[in-house]
Specification:
Elements: H1 2-23, H2 26-54, E1 56-61, E2 70-71, E3 74-77, E4 82-87, E5 93-97, H3 108-111, E6 113-117, E7 123-127, E8 132-137, E9 147-152
Parallel strand pairs: 1-4, 3-9
Antiparallel strand pairs: 1-2, 4-7, 5-6, 5-8, 8-9
Bound molecules: copper (II) ion.
Length: about 150
């Protein structure tokens, strides 16, 4: 009973104070608040973008000038990270992991994408959980040396 009696007066004072502050510089105060929250949102957006970049690797199939290559030829990634092969130029391409050149116990067929990519931008995303070196090639262009490596740490 005593406590609620002491709390009541302070609670009734607060709305009065706020109203007094707002009555003079309303526009300015709102402008600052909006600017701040927009800035914070922009910061948050760029933070999440950079986080996404840090957790994904992209390998182009065909270099930008139409060369028969995976770009980059060697990709370093972390276990469990998204690794995306993106069809770029000079397709059709595919991604065949070499059973003799993947870490022991890894099923090379299961991580390969033998179906051909025929359209620009077609993407194959996989995750590799076992550390080590994974070598792959493009079957149609193996003779031309279209091959690459992923090193998982
Ligand atoms: Cu190819």
């Amino acid at each position: 009973m005593m406590m609620s009696a002491t709390v009541m007066p302070t609670m009734s004072v607060r709305p009065v104070r706020r109203a007094a502050v707002r009555s003079t510089p309303v526009a300015k105060a709102d402008g600052v608040a909006k600017g701040l929250s927009l800035g914070m949102m922009a910061g948050l957006a760029s933070f999440t973008l950079s986080m996404a970049d840090a957790n994904a690797a992209t390998i182009k199939m065909g270099d930008d000038s139409g060369g028969l290559a995976f770009v980059p030829a060697v990709t370093n990634a972390k276990a469990g990270e998204d690794i995306s092969f993106v069809n770029n130029k000079a397709f059709p391409h595919n991604v065949v992991f070499d059973g003799d050149n993947v870490p022991g116990g890894v099923d090379a067929d299961a991580i390969s994408h033998e179906a051909l990519f025929n359209g620009p931008g077609e993407t194959y995303t996989l995750k590799l959980s076992k550390p080590g070196t994974y070598e792959f090639y493009c079957a149609p262009h193996q003779g031309a040396g279209m091959q690459g490596k992923i090193v998982i740490s």
